[in-house]
Design a protein that fits this description.
nucleotide-binding, 23 helices, binds adenosine-5'-triphosphate, ABC transporter transmembrane region fold, transport, transmembrane, about 60% helix, Rossmann fold, elongated, ATPase-coupled lipid transmembrane transporter activity, membrane
């Protein structure tokens, strides 16, 4: 794994979100970033111009010294600056909006690439990474990262306005902006610290919010709709959602606001009182004319832009918090996730001799599963794996597919360590029906075609897979044939029964076999099939598996006995290995289980 854990999410990293947005923008779009910077600077210039032009008009009116022509000119400048400022505001909005969309798209892609990049799947069951993937989308704060661009543009524009106002005020009297700037900046920093605390709290609340989201999805989605109603746990879900949500919200509460609420306004009042007192004395003493006092008053009002700009800064802090998470998810798997991802392209005829597990040890973070497993699967033969629930049968398949690597020991194909092979190329040799295969809410053509994405997908290309998997039994009844969406949630779609889905999954694997996969793995392939469909599979078993190395995981001994060899796994090891006849003669665990399962049928026959 890429070594990504929740402990990397420190407040320091979060604070750097804004810097990361700034760093990313030129890469998202250099021309738009340049344009945005230019508009922001121009706005700041126009703001100072607006104050100066306004002051000049007031001075003209007060003194009438400039005459009508002078007043008209100053008024024209004032109006031009005013209109230009008005016109720039939507331009700023358009450019920053476009950049925001592009940033969202870039970070969305980054997150997706990061989640998909690791060769294995261990990262997806790491809670810290699951939280981070949610945080990367701004789900904790409710602001997508792109909102950081719009708020950053508005903040930069305001700050420059404030700075321009401070400079103008300094031209009236050099020290006047100092107490005001100090008060506004101090207040702003206090508030920022509070917002960061709130963001930290929001991120810490992510596990609780994820639980709440899960309960909500169960309640409003259709996946659990039947069970929720039949078992009647609507109230439980409601309660679970409320409690998890409130727990998440509790974490958000209590970011102390005393300093900015009480001391902040006091600081502002004092600094402004000092400045206004000086101006009052200066005006009454005749040291300040109409124009400078007008400039000073406008500048004082405009200097508020150096302080806390509530909505904008809140949005910036919240939206930018997602960025470090998106980048971190994007880096997933850049370092090798599996211990040594091989690069050797496997021979297309692999395996020609055997697949071998040698003293393989493996466990998930919380439990050991395989404890020194040895197993040989001769190429071109079929092996059935039998074992109690949780014995590690599916885990063994995942290791073969290199979704995980053994902790120790090795898996070899014709003597070549799997770890030295390019995992993607090796996987093209595999056709797997997982026990928990996916029911894609896509067309039947996609569902089966995923078996080999780059293969011909015309109807004829699916013929053999459709025949051997039993798809043909219901294919003619699908409204749009191969193009029928397999979900009622799409126009013209239909839903399939559990057994029909299982045949789709089998057809997918057989389609891969048609296109060169040489190892067929069937993890409980007949679990949902009716008696007739199961009989069809038995009937076709030899045809399906001919020339392939087949691994069959099943609790159904009628299926298991079809295999050339059978192994029994227990305690993380192979405890029995041989043909059905050999294992029956051994009279061990297999014989016991086989007899147990066939007893009801034998008794029924004797009734
Ligand atoms: N992703 C995972 N993370 C943590 N533990 C897991 C994971 N997958 C499986 N396990 C655990 O590993 C053990 C072996 O699981 P596995 O699915 O390989 O068993 P199995 O023999 O296929 O069982 P079954 O007959 O019920 O399908 C079980 O105890 C299971 O709880």
């Amino acid at each position: 794994m890429a070594g990504l854990t929740g402990t990397e999410v420190t407040p320091g990293r979060r604070a750097s979100g804004v810097l990361e947005v700034i760093r990313l923008l030129p890469r998202v779009s250099l021309p738009l970033t340049v344009a945005l910077t230019a508009v922001v600077l121009l706005q700041a210039l126009l703001s100072s111009g607006f104050m100066l032009a306004g002051a000049a008009v007031v001075a003209d009116v007060a003194s009438r010294a400039a005459g009508d022509a002078g007043l008209a000119l100053d008024l024209a400048v004032f109006i031009a600056v005013f209109v230009a400022r008005l016109a720039l505001t939507p331009v700023l909005g358009m450019i920053s909006g476009e950049l925001a969309r592009r940033l969202n798209a870039t970070l969305g892609q980054t997150t997706l690439e990061g989640a998909l990049r690791p060769v294995g799947i261990g990262h997806l069951s790491d809670p810290a990474i699951a939280d981070r993937i949610q945080l990367a989308q701004g789900l904790a704060t409710g602001y997508p990262p792109g909102d950081a661009v719009t708020s950053l543009a508005r903040l930069a524009s305001s700050r420059l306005n404030g700075l321009a106002a401070a400079i103008l005020l300094a031209t009236v009297e050099w020290w006047l902006p100092l107490p005001l700037a100090a008060a506004w900046i101090t207040l702003s920093r206090w508030r920022l610290r509070e917002v960061r605390k709130a963001v930290d709290a929001e991120e810490e609340s992510m596990p609780a919010l994820r639980q709440a989201a899960y309960a909500r999805d169960l309640a409003i989605g259709d996946a659990a709709a039947k069970e929720v109603r039949v078992f009647g746990f609507q109230d439980w879900l409601h309660d679970r959602f409320t409690r998890a949500w409130l727990a998440g919200m509790d974490a958000l509460a209590g970011s102390g606001r005393l300093p900015s609420r009480v001391a902040g306004p006091a600081l502002l009042a004092l600094s402004h009182a000092a400045v206004f007192a000086y101006l009052a004395f200066a005006v009454s003493g005749g040291r300040l004319g109409v124009e400078p006092i007008t400039v000073a008053l406008q500048a004082i009002a405009a200097m508020g832009a150096l302080g806390w700009i509530g909505d904008i800064q809140w949005m910036l802090a919240q939206a930018s918090a997602a960025v470090p998470h998106a980048l971190a998810v994007g880096r997933l798997g850049v370092e090798a996730e599996l211990s040594r991802p091989g690069t050797t392209a496997p021979d297309e005829r692999l395996p020609a001799q055997e697949i071998r597990f040698e003293d393989v040890r493996f466990g998930y973070p919380d439990r050991p599963v395989l404890k020194g497993l040895d197993l040989s699967i001769p190429a071109g033969s079929s092996l059935a794996i039998v074992g109690m629930n949780g014995a590690g049968k599916s885990t063994l398949i995942k290791l073969l597919a290199r979704l995980y690597d053994p902790v120790s020991g090795r898996i070899t194909v014709d003597g070549v360590d799997l770890r030295t092979l390019d995992p993607l190329a090796w996987r093209r040799q595999l056709a797997i029906v997982f026990q928990d295969f996916v029911r894609y809410e896509l067309s039947l053509r996609d569902n089966v075609g995923f078996g080999r994405l780059d293969a011909d997908r015309s109807n004829g290309a699916f013929d053999r897979a459709a025949k051997l998997s039993g798809l043909n039994d219901f294919l003619p009844r699908l409204p749009a044939g191969w193009d029928t969406p397999l979900s009622r949630r799409f126009e013209g779609g239909t839903d399939l029964s559990g057994g029909q889905w299982q045949r789709v999954a089998l057809a997918r694997a057989l389609f891969a076999v048609e296109h060169g996969a040489r190892v067929l793995v069937l993890d409980e392939p007949t679990a949902n099939l009716d008696v007739r469909a199961e009989a069809q599979i038995y009937e076709h078993f030899l045809e399906i598996t001919r020339g392939l190395t087949t691994i069959l995981v099943s609790h159904r001994f009628a299926t298991v006995r079809l295999a050339d060899r059978i192994c029994v796994i227990d305690g993380g090891e192979v405890i029995e290995y041989g043909s059905h006849e050999e294992l029956m003669a051994l009279d061990g665990r297999y014989a016991h289980l086989f007899t147990l399962q066939s007893a009801p049928f034998r008794e029924a026959r004797h009734v």
